[in-house]
Recover the amino acids of this structure.
């Protein structure tokens, strides 16, 4: 499974564990940030900051143009050292940071942001895009721990500074916005100051990076958009068809099953570049490992989920624990989906990536239709079931495409 020279002294499962630990730590810091803001600021001010933070993933996904995934797909191999990586990195960063700033500016105008709030929106998106591209090169060089830690630098800086401001009684909306702006901008500058091409993947090549590396990013953009919509669509439809109290129940109970999301992200973060560089692929070992993780996680949630919800939320959301089995089913399907997703994204031919994008976009639209139909018939459980069905179809589509193209190179 592990190709020669990729993971010296460590197995892929260890790298996944390390990435998973950083992801969980980052999630806990995000909870700390939200807690500090909620305790230290009035609700309207918390809402404004939450709007800016909440808009980041979507605006960043749209403006990255799929370049982060394309970099990992094409530049994870040994022959990447022949390319002028530094020049390519500079060009991509300028493009995605500028586009991100423009989209953030337009979004800020749409929501009537002004002053430091508008400046924060623009700087956050441009900085996040810069961080994402730099860490994509680190990930392509198989420095997964450094890469994932780099992506979490803005979260770390924000959480620490906000906690200090709150503890010293100096937290205001203006201070919070300046902290966000400074933390994200400083993180981007710190990563740019470091050499993003460690190990055997250098920046002293003589050949320009092939144009297809940039061009194929648009296929990954479609995949990223479909995933972003899948993650949020059920709650958006519930908001329209039911009440905000229902949204609260659904989102709160779902939050305890986010362990599946953390595992899914960690597995794909390591597995895609490993498969990209491997001479031969044996998917049995990762499949067995994921099966073990899925069984353990599912058993834990099914046995302890009700008690966890009761303990964490003081019994206020116990009525929604009937949703846990459907959430667990989605989580298990999501974990197995990481195999075809990593294989197709990492080593399958461009035609397969295009087919995969179309399948995912199709299941995205089907998910919307299922959400509407099943919510009207079954309420919140309908939304959870619709999401599980959509993940099942994504998995079947991905496995089918992987099987068709398994013996073909890029």
């Amino acid at each position: 499974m592990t190709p020669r020279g990729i993971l010296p002294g460590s197995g892929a499962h260890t790298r996944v564990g390390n990435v998973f630990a950083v992801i969980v730590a980052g999630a806990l810091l995000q909870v700390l940030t939200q807690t500090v803001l909620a305790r230290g600021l009035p609700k309207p001010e918390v809402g404004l900051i939450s709007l800016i933070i909440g808009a980041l993933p979507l605006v960043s996904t749209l403006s990255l143009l799929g370049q982060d995934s394309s970099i990992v797909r094409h530049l994870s191999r040994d022959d990447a050292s022949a390319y002028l990586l530094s020049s390519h990195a500079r060009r991509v960063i300028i493009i995605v940071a500028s586009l991100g700033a423009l989209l953030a500016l337009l979004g800020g105008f749409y929501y009537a942001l002004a002053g430091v709030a508008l400046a924060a929106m623009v700087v956050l998106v441009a900085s996040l895009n810069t961080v994402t591209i730099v860490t994509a090169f680190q990930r392509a060089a198989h420095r997964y721990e450094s890469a994932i830690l780099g992506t979490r630098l803005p979260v770390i800086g924000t959480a620490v500074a906000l906690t200090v401001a709150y503890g010293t009684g100096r937290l205001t909306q203006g201070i919070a916005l300046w902290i966000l702006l400074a933390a994200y901008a400083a993180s981007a500058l710190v990563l740019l100051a470091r050499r993003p091409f460690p190990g055997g993947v250098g920046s002293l090549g003589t050949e320009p990076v092939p144009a297809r590396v940039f061009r194929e990013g648009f296929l990954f953009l479609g995949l990223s958009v479909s995933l972003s919509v899948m993650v949020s669509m059920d709650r958006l439809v519930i908001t329209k068809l039911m009440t905000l109290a229902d949204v609260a129940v659904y989102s709160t109970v779902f939050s305890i099953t986010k362990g599946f999301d953390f595992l899914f992200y960690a597995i794909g973060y390591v597995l895609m570049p490993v498969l990209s560089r491997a001479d031969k692929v044996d998917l049995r070992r990762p499949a067995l490992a994921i099966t073990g993780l899925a069984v353990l996680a599912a058993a834990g949630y099914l046995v302890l989920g009700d008690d966890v919800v009761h303990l964490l939320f003081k019994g206020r959301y116990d009525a929604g624990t009937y949703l846990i089995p459907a959430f667990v089913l989605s989580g298990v399907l999501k974990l197995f989906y990481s195999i075809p997703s990593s294989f197709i994204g990492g080593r399958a031919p461009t035609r397969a990536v295009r087919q995969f994008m179309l399948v995912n976009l199709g299941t995205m639209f089907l998910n919307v239709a299922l959400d509407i139909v099943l919510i009207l018939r079954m309420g919140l459980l309908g939304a959870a079931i619709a999401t599980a069905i959509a993940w099942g179809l994504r998995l079947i589509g991905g496995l089918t495409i992987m099987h068709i193209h398994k013996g073909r190179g890029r």
Notes: Residues 162 and 227 are 31 Å apart (CA to CA).
